[in-house]
Write a structure and sequence with these properties.
Helix content is 19%, strand content 22%. By secondary structure, the protein is α+β, with helices and mostly antiparallel strands.
């Protein structure tokens, strides 16, 4: 039986933000050489997750100003955003759409990155091969020094793009916010060898806005 992806396409000003429905399930969190012990977690309610990271054109339509970015391009992800700026953006987005947008929890993010209920157990989101989900630059050089337009590479099992490439994304936890989706390199890029779905970055303050930090949205049901 082939399961269809259920999409929600939300119009924001002159742009659209497509989202994928993620069904509830138990899953194994951690592992994948992340240094985090593998353990069972449960997604108790379905939710919608952004098909892509928030792009610069979406941010501009919400905030009515050019977002801070190292790499400019309307279809490139917002790439220099702090956790505090994420919360300001989401508050404004809620006012515009009247929808309960939020940042994903770390559990939500990792579950979707691993393919949700259709997971095939890949190390990266959608594949075990970096050639499927990353650009040639970071594979050859070991780290990513630019961002790409969203959606250029292979999606994962439930149709989400760019979850273990392009840039790290802010997530909520019960304690401090963390980043998922890639490990920042010494030269500001992402080291692809440490981009497993389970990897987390924890030593960044909520007001940190150095490059390669973006966001992806959820709508909780």
């Amino acid at each position: 039986m082939i399961m269809q992806h259920i999409e929600l396409d939300i119009k924001i000003g002159n742009t659209h933000y497509p989202m994928i429905k993620v069904m509830q399930e138990k899953f194994l969190m951690g592992g994948q050489d992340s240094g985090i012990k593998e353990h069972e977690e449960e997604i108790s309610k379905s939710f919608f997750m952004g098909k892509y990271p928030v792009t610069q054109e979406v941010s501009q339509d919400v905030m009515h100003e050019q977002p801070n970015n190292k790499y400019l391009g309307r279809l490139k992800p917002v790439d220099e955003v702090s956790y505090e700026e994420c919360t300001t953006f989401i508050c404004k987005l809620k006012e515009i759409t009247r929808l309960p947008f939020d940042l994903p929890t770390e559990t939500q993010w990792e579950f979707t990155a691993k393919g949700g209920i259709l997971s095939k157990g890949y190390n990266l989101s959608g594949s075990n091969s970096p050639e499927d989900v990353m650009g040639k630059n970071e594979i050859d050089d070991g780290y990513q020094t630019v961002t790409y337009d969203v959606g250029l590479f292979k999606p994962n099992e439930i149709g989400l793009y760019d979850m273990t490439n392009n840039l790290s994304e802010w997530c909520k936890t019960d304690k401090s916010p963390i980043l998922k989706g890639g490990l920042l390199g010494y030269e500001g890029g992402i080291i692809w060898e440490h981009c497993s779905c389970a990897q987390q970055l924890t030593d960044y303050a909520a007001d940190s806005y150095t490059p390669n930090k973006g966001l992806r949205l959820v709508v909780n049901l």
